[in-house]
Amino acid sequence: MGLLKISTLELANVVKGGTTLDAINRSVESAQVSEQLGYERIWFAEHHNMEHIASSATSVLIGHVAGKTKSIRIGSGGIMLPNHAPLVIAEQFGTLEAMYPNRIDLGLGRAPGTDQLTAMALRRNNLNTSFYFKDDVQALQQYFHSDNAISKVRAHPGEGLDIPIYILGSSTDSAYLAAELGLPYAFAAHFAPAMLEQAVQIYKTHFKPSEQLAEPYMIVCVNVVAAETTEEAEVLATSLFNMFAGIITNVRRPLSPPTEKPIYHGIPEIERAVDQMVSCTFMGDKAKITEELGTFAKTLGIDEIMTTNYIYDSSKRLKSFEIIAEAVQEINK
Where is the Luciferase-like domain (predicted)? Predict the structure, then answer.
C-alpha cells in the first residue's frame, strides 16, 4: 500500500436560506480549494426528486466544475447507470474527457439514487434495468475501447479515450462485481457502513487483474468533520446528523446550522437509526482526525479516503478541508 490519497464527494447540498445556484457555487469552491490542497479528485453524486440536492444533472455539473478548475480530477460518485442508456453516458463522458483530458472519472452505481416512483419515471417504467448492471458496465467499456471502431454502434466522442471506470457500492454484490471486472471499487460507508469490512475483504480476495487495473484499488467514502477543536467539530457535526434524521423520517430539510443537540435527541428509534448510518464519521481536531483516520485506513488497507463535507458555515467548511489535508499529510509521514 502506497501513500494514502484524499478526495471529496459533493452532493451540491442546498443550505438553509440558500438557492440552487448557491449550492453549485459552493461545489465549485470546494473543488477549487481541494485542488489547492492537493486532493486527488472530487466526485458528484446523482440524486433525483430531492429538493435540497442540486446534483441531479451530474454530467452537466461535472463539466461546469471542471471548467472552473485546472488539475483536480472530476467525476461521478456516481452515475446511477440503470437510469441511463450506456451509449448516452459514453457520449457524455467522452465529451467531458475531450474537453478536459486526463481529468474525468466515471464512477458507476446500481441504485436508482431516488425513490421507486421516480426511478420508474427515469427508467420509463422498466425497473428491471438494475439486473443488467454488469452488462451495461461492459457495454460502456466496449464503447470506450478502440476496438469498437468495427461496431455499427459507436460513441463519438468517447471511443478510444482513457476514461477510468469505478464501481460504487454499499453491499457485497458490488464488491464481487468490481473484483470480477478488475475495476477500482468505492464503498459508500458515509451512509451504509454495515458491510464495509466484508466488502473490502471480498474485493481484495477475488480481484482479477484487468486492462485498467493490475492490483485492487480501494476507496472508502466517510464523513469527516474537522475543526480547530474537537468540541467545535462535534457541534458542527449536528448539521450532518440532523440531515440524516431527515432522510430516515422522510422530512427532508436543507443543510441547516448546527444545533445544541441533534433535533432527534431523546427519540431512541431515530437515535439508533442515525447512529447506524453515520458510524463511519470522524469528528475532531487535526490530532484526533490524524490518529483515527490513519488507524481506519491502515486496518482496512485503504488506498484512498473520500470525505463528505456537510458543514453549514462556508468558512468552517473550507477550514475542514484544510485540516483533513494536513491530517493525511501526517498519516503519510
Answer: 20-295
Enumerate residues 6+ apart whose C-beta is below 8 A from 185: 166, 167, 168, 169, 174, 175, 178, 179, 199, 203, 216, 217, 218, 219
> What's the structural domain count of the chain?
1
pLDDT computed for residue 111 by the predictor: 87
Contacts with 328 (C-beta within 8 Å, 6 or more apart), sequence order: 4, 5, 6, 293, 305
**Res 1: pLDDT:** 63
Q: Is residue 308 part of a domain?
A: yes
Mean pLDDT in residue range 108-114: 88
User: 311 exposed, middle or buried (CB, 10 Å; 0-12, 13-18, 19+)?
Assistant: buried
Backbone angles phi and psi of 127, in degrees to 5? -85, 0
Please check whether residue 256 is in contact with residue 241, taking contact to mean a CB–CB distance below 8 angstroms: no
Position 251 in a domain: no
User: Whole domain around residue 27: which residue ranges?
Assistant: 5-225+281-331
Taking each continuous run of H as one helix and of E as one strand, the counts in the chain are 12, 9
User: Which residue stretches of the chain are H helix?
Assistant: 20-36, 58-67, 86-99, 116-122, 133-144, 172-181, 196-206, 230-236, 238-249, 268-277, 286-300, 314-331
**Rounded mean pLDDT of the chain?**
95
Helix (H/G/I), strand (E/B), else coil: 305: strand
Residue range 241-253: average pLDDT?
92
